[in-house]
Amino acid sequence: MVAVLAKLAQPFPRDVFLKEMVSRIDGRRHSDYPMVKAIAAGTATREQIGYLGVLFYHFTKVTPQVLSTIHSRCDDRHVRRRIMDTLIDEDTELRCGSKGHDELALDFATRFTGLTEDEVENFPVPQPIRDMVAYRFKVAREMPVTVALGNSGIASESHAPEMCRLISDGLRQHYGVKDEDQESWIVHIDGDEDHSETAFRVVLDKVTTPEDQAKMLWCIDEYLFHWGNFWKECEKGRIKLRK
Amino acid sequence: MGRCHPARRRQRRLAAMKTIHRPWPADFTGRPTVTVCINDRDERFAPCCGRHGGAEIAAALKDAVAQRGLDVDVQTIRCLGLCAKGPNARVAPSGSLYQAMSPADVPALIDELISDLNSAKV
Fold this sequence. Notes:
The structure holds 2 protein chains of 2 kinds. Chain A has helices spanning 14-25, 34-41, 46-60, 63-73, 77-91, 101-113, 117-121, 127-142, 145-155, 160-175, 183-186, 195-206, 210-235. Chain A has 13 helices and no strands. Helices cover 67% and strands 0% of the residues of chain A. The N and C termini of chain A lie far apart (38 Å). By secondary structure, chain A is mostly helical. By secondary structure, chain B is of the alpha+beta class. Chain B is 32% helix and 16% strand. Chain B has a 5-stranded mixed beta sheet with strand order 1-5-4-2-3, with helices on one face. The mean pLDDT of chain B is 88. The A-B interface holds A 88, 93-98, 165, 168-169, 172-173, 178-180, 183, 186-192 and B 30, 33, 35, 39, 41-42, 44-46, 75-83, 90, 92-93, 95, 97.
C-alpha cells in the first residue's frame, strides 16, 4: 500500500474534487504505460502479449464476484439495478459480448498463447496480480458502496477504451490477430466510452462528505498503483508460448 | 429468427444508418479493416446484430470490396459492445462507426472509406 488515507477537514467543492481525481489519473492512464504503447507500435514481444493475455484473464475473472459483493452491500434500489446491469454485462452474453467477459479474456489468452484453458486457469499468478485482486475484494467489502463503484469506474474503466483501442489496433496491424480472436479488447472500445462520464457523475453526486472523498482519492491512488504494477509485470513476458 | 427486440423496432422507426465519423490517422500505411458484428443471440435482454442482417451486411461488404478492387480487409466479430444501436460496423484504424446499418448502406460506407483513404494520401 503506497497511499496514505488522508483526513479532510471540509468536503471539496464539486469542481475541486473533480480536479483532485483527474490530477491523480494524469500520467497514469493505461495508455501511458510502455507495455500498451509497445503493442500499438508493434515492438512488444509475443511473450509479453501472451503474458498480458493470461494475467488479464486472472484479473477479469474475479470482476463478477467483486461486483456482486458490492451489489450485496448496496441499500439503494436504483444503484443496485445499475450494478446488476453491469454484472449481467460482465458475467453473461445476454446484454453485451458474445460470452461473459472472463470467457472472452480466456479466449484471447488461449488463442494467442496456444495454451489450453486449463493451463491458463492454473498458470501461477504473480504476486502483483494477486495483490491487485486482493485489493479489489478489500475495496468491495470495506469501502462505502459509491466509493467502491468509483474505484473501478474512475481509476480504471474511465481510461480503458483508449487502452483497448491501442492494443486492438496493434494486435491487428502488427501481430495478425483477427478481430474475432480479440473480442475481449474490442468490446470495450466503443461500448465503454460513456462509462467515464457516468462514473465521474455518480461519484461527484454521491461522494460528498470529507471522509468519503478522502477514501475515494485514496482508492484512485491505490488502484492506479496496482495497475502500474500490472503493466510492469506484463513487460516481463514470463510465459512459454505454444504457437 | 426471433421476434424483433423492442429497442430495435423503435430504432427502425426512427432512423436510417447513423455514422460516427472519425479522422483517418495520417501516419497509417497498412490495410484498413471493416469489422461487422454478426452476433446472433436470444434477444430478450438486448438486441443483436446477427438477427437484423449482420451476416448479410458482411457479405455485401465483401462483394463491394472485391468489385471495386479495394485493398480492404472485411472481418466479422460477435460483439462490438453497441448492441442496442446495431447492426454495427467499425472501421479500423480510424474507429469510425456505422450503426443501424442494412446491406443497402454498404455503398455509402465504401464511398466514405475511399474518400478517407484518398484524403489521407494527399
